[in-house]
Write a structure and sequence with these properties.
This is Reverse transcriptase Ty1/copia-type domain-containing protein. By secondary structure, the protein is α+β, with helices and mostly antiparallel strands. It is built from 3 helices and 3 strands. Strands 1-2-3 form a 3-stranded antiparallel beta sheet. It is flat and about 55 Å long.
Length: 92
């Protein structure tokens, strides 16, 4: 994932966390087609939450950080992780 995304090696931790996130939410033959997440939390995985590592995204700018009524509500960014804490890398 890190090689394909063309990000520097300093993002290897985020790539590994994303790989672990995806692995825990992927069906396993030893669990009869269920996912480890499904077994542990007794609920199904929402597949709409998956997105490619380093995909284009928009990060919401909090209301108190905006400079006025007509200021942009989002900032262009790339997503570098889909684990519990949202991870964004901003770019312009």
């Amino acid at each position: 994932m890190l090689h394909d995304s063309k990000l520097p090696k300093s993002f290897w931790v985020d790539a590994m966390q994303t790989a672990a996130y995806i692995t825990a939410r992927s069906p396993a033959s030893g669990l009869h087609g269920k996912t480890p997440y499904e077994i542990l939390f007794k609920r199904r995985v929402d597949p709409t939450l998956f997105c490619p590592f380093r995909c284009q995204a928009y990060a919401l700018i909090p209301k108190d950080k905006r400079q006025g009524k007509f200021y942009s509500k989002g900032r262009k960014a790339i997503m570098i992780g889909s684990h519990m804490e949202s991870k964004w890398l901003s770019f312009t």
